[in-house]
């Protein structure tokens, strides 16, 4: 269908930039939420993995937060 188009099998370079922007917009709040609940911030990176991100949301929503037990508040 693409014929001899040299760009037929490649992705547009702007696609990768857009994916980076979306990842930053999603990861930063997830990182902060994990920190404020008392979990390590790196757990916010799990929001980028399909299906695991749903488990992360339910985990944060329904478990006891370490920050509530210690009275710790970040920010």
From TrEMBL:
Transmembrane stretches, start-end: 12-31, 43-62
Alphabetically sorted, this entry's keywords are: Membrane, Transmembrane, Transmembrane helix
Question: What's the protein here called?
Answer: DUF805 domain-containing protein
